[in-house]
Amino acid sequence: MTGGVGAPAERREGREKVSGTARYAAEYHSPGRAQAWPVPATVARGRVTGVDTAAALALPGVLAVLTHENAPRLAEPDDPTLAVLQDARVPHRGWFVALVVAETLEAARAGAAAVRVAYDAEEHDVRLTASHPGVYVPEEANAGHPAVRERGDPHRAFESSAVRVDVAYRVPPLHNHPMEPHASTARWDDGRLTVHTSSQGAGAVRAVLAGLFALPKRRIVVTAEHVGGGFGSKGTPRPDVVLAAMAARQTGRAVTVALPRRYLPAVVGHRAPTLHRLRLGADTDGRLTSLVHEVTTHTSRIKEFVEQAAVPARVMYSTPHSRTVHRVAALDVPSPSWMRAPGEAPGMYALESAMDELAGELGMDPVELRVRNEPDVEPDSGKPFSSRHLVECLREGARRFGWAGRDPRPGSGGEGPLLVGTGVAAATYPVMVWPAAATARALPDGTFLVRINATDIGTGARTVLAQVGADALGVPLERVWTEVGSSELPSAPLAGGSSGTASWGWAVHEACAQLARRLAEHAGPLPEQGLDVRADTRGAADTESAWSRHAFGAHFAEVAVDTVTGEVRVRRLLGVYAAGHILNARTARSQFVGGMTMGLGMALTEGSTMDAAFGDFTESDLASYHVPVHADVGEIEAHWLDEDDPRLNPMGSKGIGEIGIVGTAAAIGNAVHHATGVRFREIPLTPDRVLAGLLDRRATNDVRTGPATSGSGPVRQS
To answer: 570, 558 in Cβ contact below 8 A?
Structure first.
């Protein structure tokens, strides 16, 4: 029996986690370890003119207070958000202006409260509008995407289209909020730095620390053994790890910095708000003649980060004329950053909502509209798809969901005070693969050890990599062990962009396949230390592909809307995906369902507000920023089509960590429109927003002479 790639193997670290023996970054105890608590700025823009630390230093247990006047000097970082305590500037509210180090966490927190900071405050601007005078078109959006792409004459084609939709959508700021907040423990020993950190990539943290502290990488060890989620916010180093290293150097002791949850929105990134304008033109048969997607977003004054939300429209549908453009305004806000499915999640919410509106204008089934506009090649690049089974996902999803029995008329389903509706949306996410190195060792006792600096952020990477290794070796899974999560292991990219397993698994597969060949040629017993093989996928994994490589999926949702309270309940969610070979059915289903649950939160409960007066996110903790709980989640099903795509990697796998969120919010929003006849173009669909829309709808119906039909235009709800 081999390792069984595709089998639903249980996660190997599961028992450690449920029994409490798995140690996270803040749980590495050592003699004399101190705790630190940061002091955030209370102005939205300005300079620190004075820091009074006397009261804090007088408190029992307080060891030191670091400020811009006495903190260790750092080399200028590539990421300006890491230049903490280096000067007096305050680029946004919540920027750290001091750090209190103490014997205990309680003493550090009390010390931070006792620090008094004086500021020279300046006028600030945190309000994003599409007409903001500071809006500009950047050279690039994130990940190297051109900010603007245009084919044909989209504006003229739109004006001459038989059927047109011109609509605007708004996605608010969103926050990652992993279960384990950002935390790091650091210590210095004879000029060597050891760090335990909650990060999606130990190698990236080591490289940044080496630059900041002018140290050779070989004198830094970074461990991220267990990580309690990240969703992108831990994809790059954050201030906690820099502060921990600075405090440890200053005090000569090990120091832990565990950021309070309410500080996270200001210092670890967020999904920037996006304002969307979609113009879709089609002929009477439903074929797109023009597609224009314009996105306006914000970035901070100190770091340009442009959410690439118009990029999915370059991939999804066939049209001879298109224009996609990103615009951004630099404001006095915290720096936005990566959040699960950056670009795709907000971009596909807008695009798939607009497609639903177009289907309504055409009087066409929303599934059939998408099928009718299926491209033969990627519209933007002209490359052929390595595999694209979106139509199959839509058809299979419709079959499983019972879509054929749907009454297409908005507002046609009712159960007393409840309005019931269903919706659909497509999803896509790019395939990304990066070079990695791995070693595989055969031991005399018949077991095997695979070593790679992968990061398991709760996805089951340890288990899946062991399955890949066992499959390549042709041995039972229980004979293969993995070591991950340390910069002392063979180098590997971070866990992000749904690229982890595809990248790490390629290197693991190559190492284990080479080891299998060596073992086949080896005669006699193995040496005591075992037999080692190393593989490096540089020159293979990073070769530009002649194919457009993407995962695709289809989401279906059923909702019930309470006409008395405005509450929306999602009764059913179904996702059907085409994401290459699925390497572990158990962990894959968990990833799909987790993404869909996060998409449900995006649609119904999650959203943040920038307070214009104070320059602060008002929803800064889980009491005010509402992630979904069990009561919010009804029946969720995830299924997949097994794709045979040899143009990906030796396992034939695509990333699955993010595609689950991509179409979920749009499917739910489309279902709410089907239930109510009201088109809500701003999420989340909270009860107050929904109830206001229902009341407006009733007022409109009072003056109508007849009910809406399936071919009538949608109610315009801004």
So the answer is: yes
